[in-house]
Write a structure and sequence with these properties.
The chain is of the alpha+beta class and 386 residues long. The chain has helices at residues 3-14, 91-102, 127-143, 149-164, 171-178, 221-236, 250-256, 263-287, 291-307, 313-324, 352-367, and strands spanning 20-31, 41-58, 62-67, 74-77, 110-117, 183-188, 194-198, 204-210, 329-335, 342-348, 372-376, 383-384. The model has no long low-confidence stretch (mean pLDDT 95).
Length: 386
């Protein structure tokens, strides 16, 4: 929907014009998966699609929430803004408001809020982070709260932890806040130091393939992986004090890996340590213009996520395997939390039509689900549109 169409929808919903329109993007992670909550680097980019939020003050001392994507409408008084709701999309913006209150920002005005997003839900492209960040960005601007973009990312992450009950790392919210057109964000998730790395893809596009097997991070499997990594850290601490798995190089890990007696925790740790190295190597390859090596590292990342971290599943594996067969595919891997969702592929322009046709047909034949494909552009982070 255009900004003009959204303004009309706001007026139809609330009987008055919107005072401002904001945007925050979804993201795709090029490499560095399940490293963020393990203290490691990630390498995502913001996408040109995301979530728009229209807002106007009201004189009723209430927060009104409406979405053009979902039917549920909510109206909450100020004293209800720190209590999570049962099974509601409103928990994402509400969790952000609760964080503002925790940080000493008192609401004196009520707001009418309308949300619309074009990030496919359940695709693993961070529709939730886009919603959290756009809410935080809008409130920060409206209230002149003075939070930095890094603060807004942390507020979004806390909202996800406390109101969506997913123990996510900082990557999704950070790139939604900090993204820049035609750049990926090389982020140290421990220090929040980051570098914008130009992504020069002459004659190559990023193609996102949606398996339509929705990923469900809140199913418990994600939190289970977090716990397994913690167990690996605890066992390694008997021989070397570390806080995060990402502190270890591959050589370090080989020397002390026998301290991890739990075989599952060992596999999880091996993935994290290897993925940290692959991410660092991939950024160097991209800076050197070596897309071929970047693609090989993407493929290796998928194999590790399949075999050691076990977060792919038949749909993502099929999508990656079919992509690897196509001439002109430089690299392909699952992206996001896993257990469904999307793959990200680097595909030469002349191979895109063949890719979509063949991968789509073979995936549907093997899995029985019709996939979707998005040719993605790298866009900017959170911004005010009007």
């Amino acid at each position: 929907m255009t900004t003009q169409e959204l303004k009309k929808a706001f007026e139809a919903a609330y009987g008055k014009p919107a005072e401002a329109v904001y945007f925050a993007p979804g993201r795709v992670n090029l490499i560095g998966e399940h490293t963020d909550y393990n203290g490691g680097p990630v390498f995502p980019c913001a996408l040109s699609f995301g979530t728009r939020l229209l807002i106007a003050k009201n004189d009723k001392k209430v927060m009104n929430f409406k979405s053009l994507n979902l039917p549920e409408v909510k109206s909450l008084k100020f004293d209800q803004l720190t209590t999570r709701l049962e099974k509601s999309w409103v928990n994402y913006p509400l969790g952000v408001m609760a964080q503002f209150i925790k940080r000493g920002k008192t609401f004196t005005d009520g707001y009418d809020i309308l949300i619309w997003g074009d990030v496919p839900n359940g695709a693993g492209l961070s529709s939730s982070a886009a919603l959290e960040v756009v809410t935080a960005f809008a409130l920060n601007d409206q209230m002149k709260a003075g939070f930095s973009r890094a603060d807004l990312a942390l507020i979004g992450q806390k909202a996800e932890h406390e109101f969506a009950l997913v123990n996510c790392g900082i990557m999704d919210q950070f790139v939604s806040a900090h993204g820049a057109k035609d750049h990926a964000v090389y982020l140290d998730t421990t220090t929040l130091e980051y570098e914008l790395v130009p992504v020069k893809l002459e004659g190559v596009k990023i193609v996102i393939s949606n398996t339509h097997s929705p990923h469900k991070l809140d199913s418990g499997a994600y939190n289970q992986r977090v716990a397994e990594c913690k167990k690996a850290v605890e066992q390694l601490n008997k021989v070397r004090p570390i806080k995060f798995l990402a502190e270890l190089t591959e050589a370090d890990f080989k020397k002390i890996e026998s301290a991890i007696t739990d075989p599952v925790a060992h596999k999880r740790a091996r993935h994290v340590v290897g993925e940290v190295q692959r991410t660092s190597d991939a950024v160097k390859a991209l800076k050197a213009g070596n897309l071929k090596l970047f693609g090989k590292l993407m493929n290796a990342s998928h194999v590790s996520l399949r075999d050691d971290y076990e977060v792919t599943g038949p749909e993502l594996d099929c999508m990656a395997e079919e992509a690897w067969k196509i001439d002109g595919v430089i690299g392909s891997r699952m992206t996001g939390g896993g257990f469904g969702g999307c793959t990200v592929s680097l595909v030469k322009d002349e191979a895109i039509d063949t890719f979509i046709k063949k991968v789509g047909a073979n995936y549907e034949k093997r899995i029985g689900i019709k996939p979707d494909f998005y040719i993605a552009e790298i866009g900017d982070g959170a911004t005010r549109l009007a």
